[in-house]
């Protein structure tokens, strides 16, 4: 049984999601701070290796968002058993992708590290070592994201909170111990990451088994998820290509620039994922409303979460702007790296209100299963706006500020398309299936 959408209901789903979303980037920030004090080269290696590993997180997000949309519609239509079956198949997809990522990383980490290090052999070696070890946690990472997806669809936000918190606390304790007292350095960070992701995946797998649903693969359901996943995959490819290119261009300006980019980027990821809590609540509730045949309720939610997105974006802009003199220094003692991070800061602050609105509306359209539009919009914004801007920044030697100006244009282009789509109302299609 579903509950009528109210702002109290949005908050009840968004607050636990906020904690879950904030846990992972908080750990990454801790990891960045721990490694940052090893020096410029390890931090730059983490930046490159971490950017490469976001491919695994991206694949997990693809599965998670597709699963949430399909599960939420089934749940809204009163079909809980079918909703859980969607979660089972999403977990199979996630695990398969995770194993593939782990295997590819063992082969491709070296060439990738060298390609992104801008000719710096030390940074390339550091990135390669970190990525090969950390990628062993990819199967667990993707199982956890799929688990988050189906649990959001049935509006269960409490258990994901406990699972993700437990794994991240373990990692936060292990990381400084393995890096410093154990003397493993950058490798210690990678081991802590892999252990935490594996534990998280096992916890979500146990939750799925407790539902007592059939665990065998179902080709018909898998096919439906793959159709939706195709659009989300292409959408994610355009998005990841943009951020991957940003790191590559930053690396061309030297190790201090890419290390400064890592600090700003991880803080930006923290803000975006925290703001995405409202989008996740919207995704679950919009999917349930449309699954139950209530298009007016879905439109009401779209208007309300848009306002909340703007408010949260302004709040982050104020905090990040006020913290410019303090925040970069929490992650490194290298003044050159701090100076580079501050080149990105004005753009980082300015994009926050627009990003808050964008992420809120993104959740609405994901909940509606409007993945083809999201795919096309992101491809156009990524390859038509960001990529040319980033390449121009590199060619004209505009530095890290130029890279972040291109990222801001990427956000604005996506937001413009999203506003037009939501206003049209063509996304609010009702029914138990997408």
From TrEMBL:
Cellular component, GO, one term: plasma membrane
Principal location: membrane
Membrane topology: Multi-pass membrane protein
Keyword Zinc: no
Keyword flag Transport: yes
Keywords noted in UniProt: Cell membrane, Membrane, Transmembrane, Transmembrane helix, Transport
Membrane-traversing stretches: 46-69, 90-109, 129-149, 161-180, 186-208, 307-331, 343-361, 373-392, 398-420
Molecular function in Gene Ontology: antiporter activity; xenobiotic transmembrane transporter activity
Compartments reported by the entry: Cell membrane
Protein family membership: Belongs to the multi antimicrobial extrusion (MATE) (TC 2.A.66.1) family.
Alphabetized NCBIfam families for the sequence: matE (TIGR00797)
PANTHER family according to UniProt: PROTEIN DETOXIFICATION 44, CHLOROPLASTIC (PTHR42893:SF46), PROTEIN DETOXIFICATION 44, CHLOROPLASTIC-RELATED (PTHR42893)
Protein's name in the database: MATE family efflux transporter
Organism name: Virgisporangium aurantiacum
């Amino acid at each position: 049984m579903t509950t009528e959408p109210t702002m109290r209901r949005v908050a009840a789903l968004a607050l636990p999601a906020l904690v879950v979303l904030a846990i992972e980037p908080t750990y990454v920030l801790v990891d960045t701070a721990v490694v940052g004090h090893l020096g410029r080269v390890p931090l730059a290696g983490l930046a490159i290796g971490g950017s490469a590993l976001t491919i695994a997180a991206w694949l997990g997000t693809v599965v998670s968002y597709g699963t949430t949309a399909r599960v939420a519609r089934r749940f809204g239509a009163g079909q809980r058993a079918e909703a859980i079956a969607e979660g089972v198949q999403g977990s199979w997809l996630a695990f398969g992708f995770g194993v593939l990522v782990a295997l590819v990383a063992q082969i491709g980490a070296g060439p990738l590290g060298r390609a992104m290090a801008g000719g710096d052999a030390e940074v390339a070696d550091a990135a390669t070592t970190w990525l090969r070890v950390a990628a062993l946690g990819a199967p667990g990472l993707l199982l956890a994201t799929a688990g988050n997806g189906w649990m959001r669809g049935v509006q269960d936000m409490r258990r994901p909170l406990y699972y993700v918190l437990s794994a991240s606390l373990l990692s936060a304790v292990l990381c400084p111990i393995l890096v410093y007292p154990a003397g493993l350095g950058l490798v210690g960070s990678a081991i802590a990451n892999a252990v935490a992701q594996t534990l998280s995946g096992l916890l979500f797998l146990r939750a799925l088994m407790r539902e007592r649903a059939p665990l065998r693969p179902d080709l018909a359901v898998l096919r439906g998820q793959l159709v939706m996943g195709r659009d989300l995959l292409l959408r994610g490819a355009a998005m990841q290509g943009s951020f991957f290119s940003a790191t590559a261009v930053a690396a061309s300006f030297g190790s201090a620039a890419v290390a400064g980019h890592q600090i700003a980027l991880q803080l930006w990821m923290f803000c975006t994922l925290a703001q995405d809590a409202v989008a996740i609540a919207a995704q679950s509730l919009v999917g349930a409303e449309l699954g139950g045949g209530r298009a007016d309720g879905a439109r009401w939610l779209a208007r309300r979460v848009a306002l909340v997105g703007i408010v949260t974006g302004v709040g982050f802009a104020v905090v990040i702007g006020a913290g410019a003199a303090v925040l970069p220094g929490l992650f490194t003692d290298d003044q050159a790296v701090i100076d580079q991070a501050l080149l990105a800061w004005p753009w980082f602050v300015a994009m926050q209100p627009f990003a808050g609105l964008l992420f809120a509306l993104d959740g609405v359209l994901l909940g509606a299963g409007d993945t083809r539009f999201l795919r096309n919009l992101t491809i156009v914004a990524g390859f038509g706006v960001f990529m040319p801007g980033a390449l121009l920044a590199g060619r004209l030697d505009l530095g890290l500020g130029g890279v972040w100006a291109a990222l801001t244009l990427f956000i604005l282009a996506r937001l413009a398309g999203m506003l037009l789509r939501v206003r049209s109302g063509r996304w609010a299609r009702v029914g138990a299936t997408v």
